[in-house]
Amino acid sequence: MSSTPVTASPRIASTLRAFGRARWPSESLSSRVFVLPIAIVMVVLFLVPLAQSVYYSLTNFNGYSTDAKFVGFTNYAKVFTDATMTSGLFFTLLFAISTTVVVTALAIPLAVILNRKFFGRRFVQSMFFFPAIPSMAILGLVWGFIFNPLGSGALNSVLHALFGLAPIPWLSVDQLAQLSVIVVGIWTQTGWHAMLYLAYLQSIPHDYYEVAMIDGASPRQRFTYITLPLLAPAVTISSLLLLTGGLKVYDLPFTLTAGGPGFATETLTQAIIQNGVAQAKFGEGSALAVVFLLLVGVVVLAQLALARKLEKSFQ
């Protein structure tokens, strides 16, 4: 019995094509209906405020008067000449980059350790995750008591009792205050990001490690050639969250140091609020907000490009 290929008749083929053309408009319409709410939210909550900020940044609008005058790029010039704003830009970048690098360097080894089986592992995981639960503002107040520069501060009392050290001005000297804020930021985020890496580690098939052990690979080689390459997507997500969170940080430095001493620990978001709301300088605050948005966009795009190159290098 000879077998011949079965083909659809011209009438059936034309019917199927017509049916496909009839379905495409309805499918396209339904997809547009689902996207419409997202587009509305995007326009109302992002594009409209952005357009207003750009407009106000070119005027001397103070938030009350309706006769705002066009001043051109005067507000933008003040952003780069005002000491409070430049110091806020410096510390914001310092905080974002420092926390991103250090938290990543600590969270990955911590996740590897927590991925091992040992007694009380769940309790230890919950203890490391706990600092991410309270609000940053509350943690800032608590650590403000710990870093109190007076002799009655908790940390100074411990150091004096153990080593006889004199009170250290943790929050009264520029460099020490900046270091204190960064240390607290690292402490609050390391455990959460370790749990993120731990979730990725638990999704890696154990067969990879078994084969590597049979081939005689050392623990260091297994970590370098198996764990790190498979954690590359997690590194991208974690570093992006750390970087964007560090660039828009406000509550932790404000409650811990109130931006002081001087303007050493003031952030860009605090400068925007202080200039735009507290001092009723909406033009200058809007200009700083636009510069801040551009800065975040550039930094995030650069970080994503670097992360993609790292992912390709691990493949």
Q: What is the rounded distance between the termini?
A: 51 Å
Give the overall shape, derived from the CA principal axes: flat
Count of DSSP strands:
0
What is the CA-atom radius of gyration, in angstroms? 27 Å
Structural class designation: mainly alpha
Runs with pLDDT <50, length 5+? 1-8
Give the topology string: H per helix, E per strand: HHHHHHHHHHHHH
Average pLDDT for all residues: 83
* Sheet with the most strands, sense and barrel status: none
Separate helix tally? 13
Can you describe what's shown?
With 315 residues, the chain is mainly α. It is 74% helix and 0% strand. The chain contains 13 helices and no strands. The protein has helices at residues 10-57, 74-79, 83-114, 121-129, 136-146, 154-163, 174-202, 206-214, 219-230, 232-247, 251-257, 268-278, 282-314. Helix 1 packs across helix 13 (282-314) and helix 10 (232-247) runs antiparallel to helix 13. The longest helix has 48 residues, at 10-57.
